[in-house]
Amino acid sequence: MKELTEKQKAFARGVFEGLSQREAYKKAYDCSTKKDKTVDELASRLARNAKVKEYLEEMNKEVEKSSVLSKKERMEWLSRVVTTPINAVDGESDLCQEYTETQGETFSSTKYKMPSKIQAIQELNKMDGAYEPEKIEVKSELSFSSLLKSLPSDPLVRGTEES
Question: Is the pTM of this model over 0.85?
Answer without folding.
Answer: no
